Amino acid sequence: MGEVIHVSEKKYFIKWFLENYELQNREAEWLLQYLASNDHVLEKVHFVDNFKNLPKTILMSTKCVQMTPFKFYKNRRVTSDVEKAFLDIHNHPNEEIYVGLFFKDRNLSPEYAAVLENNPVDLSRETDALISLQAELILDYAVRDYRLAKLYEQIDLALDRRDEQRFAELTTNLKKIIELG
Questions:
Q1: For the packed helices 120-160 and 164-180, what is the interaxial angle rounded to 10 degrees?
Q2: Contact at 8 Å (CB) between 103 and 67?
Q3: Are the beta carbons of 17 and 101 closer than 8 angstroms?
């Protein structure tokens, strides 16, 4: 996952899938065959397990699982009409298409794993979360450095004033900050 899946790998997978499984909706099988026959469209096809918030998704199920037979999602509109999905794909061949397949033992299938990709929306969320975490760490370090600088100033001031009690108090705080890292 994470790397580009070549058209030939997708074709091989679809062929293998159609030879080994029977879709609940016969027209969905025809749609998969169409996808496999059109290299340009197949470049835009991505097999995913997580299809949340994707602009154009097709879900298909085999007879060996109890899931909806066929659903086509585009911009929050949903249909179970395979012909509408085909027309949309045919009329918009440059749009990315995300396909979710449900079949028995799919998690154990090396053929499926070979074409499985990550949801790009989730990846951007993960990236946003990492950036946010990095920003928090940088802020934490900046605040720590600021506190240390202020503490050193106060220690210097306590030394200048020969205030032993204040000096002891401040050095105890300094030790605690340094121990925390």
A1: 160
A2: no
A3: yes
CB 82 within 8 A of CB 41: no
Closest CA to 21 of 67, 61, 72: 61
The first and second tokens of residue 111, run together, are: 């053929």
Summarised one tens digit per residue, pLDDT across range 138-153 is 777 788 888 889 999 9
Q: Is residue 2 part of a domain?
A: no
CB 86 within 8 A of CB 58: no
Q: What is the pLDDT of residue 86?
A: 97
- Distance, in Å, from the CA atom of 172 to the CA atom of 137, rounded to the nearest integer, reads 25
Considering the domain architecture, whether residues 93 and 31 belong to the same structural domain is answered as: yes
| CATH code of residue 11 | 3.40.1530.30
The structure's pTM equals 0.65
Phi, psi angle pair for 45, to nearest 5°: -85, 135
d(CA 48, CA 154): 58
Helix (H, G, I), strand (E, B), or coil: what is residue 61?
strand
Residue 181 has pLDDT above 70, yes or no: no
